[in-house]
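re the bet — no i am not wrong, look at it urself. input seq straight from the record:
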Amino acid sequence: MSKCRLHIARSDYELLWHHLYQEDRDEHGAILLAGLSELDTTPLLTVREVHLAKDGVDYVAGKIGHRALTPQFIHRLITRARDERLVYLAVHNHGSDRQVGFSDIDLRSHERGYPALLQIAKGMPVGALVLGRRAMQADLWMPDGSRRELDEARVIGMKIERLAPHLSRNLDSVDDQYDRQIRMFGRVGQQTLSRAHVAVVGLGGIGSLLVEYLARLGVGHFTLVDDDTVEASNLSRLIGASQSDADNRTPKVQLARRLIQQANPSAYIEHLNADVAKASVANRLKGCGYIFLAADSMRARLVVNALVHQYLVPAVQLGSKVRADEQGQVIDAFSAIRPLRPGVGCLWCNQLIDPNLLAKEAKTDEERKAQAYGVDEPNPSVISLNAVSAGHAVNDFLMDYLGLRAERPLHYQHINALTGKLQLVEPRKDADCPECSKRGMRFARGDGVDLPCLEG
């Protein structure tokens, strides 16, 4: 059977899980409403709403099966799914742990009821999920009559958890170059890295360090995005760059590709010598497992922030900043690591996307001069400050992607090079934010809304 994938924010997953797995050890139910998007030919479901079925009211003794959702509860939410253009997913639990599947009674109930639900849904899929304690399976009915089972579900918090219908024990052979890493996180962890798909947006001073670190860890799939080329002023901080690269204006994506191939020849690399703000580029990132944002522009921040909340993709925004006074005395020098997760750490909420700079970036050089914007001076940049940001971000990715530490609150990290102090900043959260709030237009909508991109 063909496959589908599912993303769910950790807060929603924990709400659902604790409802299903109550102390009575009985079966319980819920309905999820999810956005829909296409990853090549694989549907991606992004959970937007969790509706818990009240026992004895919405979830009652079944006439055929053990329990069933009531017609009234189903009707209320299938019509909401239709009106909001969301996917309807009925959910219940089984008592299993790392393996789960639908019973014959479950599947027969789908065959009786889902053709009618498809008619009500008017062009949107409908389906069901069954949860084990650490497993998940889907039966997704598509409008064309085909059905999909689950490939993988991702629970996106600070820690990223992967669920499947059953635990795979088929471990790929691992190259000896990863022996010391395997001693830390095992063959399963190394295999997880080899199957990881990361995007690096911006391949300058921080981005070049990121691809070097990630490739040497054994990450297996890269999407690289940058529309710039190597210049002489880059050579002090671009890993692997030579004078020949500056003379020939080598695209930074080509330099990054070369770094990855030297460290991990088996990696699959997709390099896009283009602006992430273009729709054709941004749409290539919606299926990534993790995004590293190391580009300076406000437009890049805007687009990646939207990808996080719209497609429930974990990301981190990185940077370093140096400020000097009029006498040239350094008064501030710090590295920043700002994680973004669905509904948390939003760059809009935290005023890290400047509308005035967005408007300025949209203008040509001639327009900026005509309107007295002037020409921007390049920001100071030092490889050691960049390395602090890149090193911390890759460590966080490693710990969270492999589940090597427990879930924890999201904080921005600001590391001051002058004082040597680490500052943890609790990000702001606007309850009515149109980008990250469930009240807004974007959260978990998938392809149901457009990304804030330029044409192309």
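see?? The chain has two domains: 2-163, 176-425. told u. also Residues 371-375 have pLDDT under 50 and may be disordered. so pay up
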